[in-house]
Amino acid sequence: MTARLFVALELPAAVRADLAAFGHAAAAADPALRAVSEDALHLTLAFLGHRDPADIDPAGEAVRGVRSTAPVLALGDALWLAPRRPHVLTVALTGMLAPLHAQVVERLVAALDWEADARPFRPHVTLARVRRGARPHRELPDPQQAAFAGEAVVLYRSHLGRGPARYEPLARVSLSSQ
Ligand code: ATP
Ligand code: MG
Predict the structure, then answer these.
(1) Closest residue (by CA) to atom 16 of ligand 1?
(2) Nearest atom (ligand 1) to Cα of 164
(3) Nearest to residue 43, comparing CAs of 69, 67, 19, 68?
(4) In a mutational test of the pocket of ligand 1, which residue from 158, 168, 170 has the highest number of ligand atoms less than 8 Å from its CB?
(5) Is 91 exposed, middle or buried (0-12, 13-18, 19+ CB in 10 A)?
(6) Structural domain count of the chain
(7) Which of 149, 165, 16 is nearest to 70 (CA)?
(8) 131 lines ligand 1 (CB under 6 A)
(9) Structural domain range at position 78
(10) CA-based angle 70:23:131, to the nearest 5?
(11) 4 lines ligand 1 (CB under 6 A)
(12) Which residue's CA is minimally distant from atom 25 of ligand 1?
């Protein structure tokens, strides 16, 4: 048995509400899309993948030891990933996220037998998923602009099955306000 783990930045409820409205509007206009539910919206900082459950405790300790002020972020443009053949509709985030991302990755590398993704970090929130075999229309309105602070870093266990993945929070650290 393995545990599918990832670490994410928690988003303020008001931002999740706005993003959920955008994702649900896109899905209502296009049957190829399935919106992500409001409570599941998050920004992935590190994807650990399927791990030995013995990794849960050290990963949780690594997350609880993160010390950072809450990064100030803004919503960017809607972004289809992968661009040529999209399977998700996301919104890009801009702002000073690199130091927090680097700290989270460094702490996980020190705590686990895990190597960070070599690809550049492109912060985004997934708003809707393309249904299997479907092709989405690409035209979208621009998302509403908003600036906000990330509130907490959370270690999640992802439970895949039929229907949407369920994310179980395992460890959380609040970020200090600026
Ligand atoms: P599903 O895979 O059933 O569509 P999901 O993508 O929401 O559901 P997971 O695949 O467990 O659930 O992913 C959890 C989080 O980690 C999501 O934010 C996802 O975008 C991200 N993620 C998944 N795989 C990778 C990967 N290979 N590299 C980086 N991030 C990933
Ligand atoms: Mg996935």
Answers:
(1) 47
(2) 3
(3) 19
(4) 158
(5) buried
(6) 1
(7) 149
(8) no
(9) 3-174
(10) 120
(11) yes
(12) 47
- The atom number, within ligand 1, closest to the CA of 42 reads 18
- Answer whether 42's CB lies under 8 Å from 168's CB: no
Q: Is the pTM of this model over 0.90?
A: yes
Residue ranges of the alpha helices (H) in 48-97?
56-64
Return the structure tokens found at 79. 């972004």
Q: Is 82 in the pocket of ligand 1 (CB under 6 A)?
A: no
Instruction: Read off the pLDDT of residues 46-58 as tens digits, 9 standing for 90 and up.
Output: 999 999 999 999 9
CA of 178 to the centre of ligand 1 (A): 30
Query: The domain spanning residue 81 has which CATH number?
Result: 3.90.1140.10
In the structure encoding, which two tokens stand for residue 24, read together?
């649900």
Is 103 touching ligand 1 by the criterion CB < 6 Å?
no
| pLDDT mean over 119-128 | 96
Question: Is residue 96 helix, strand or coil?
Answer: coil
pLDDT for the residue 146: 84
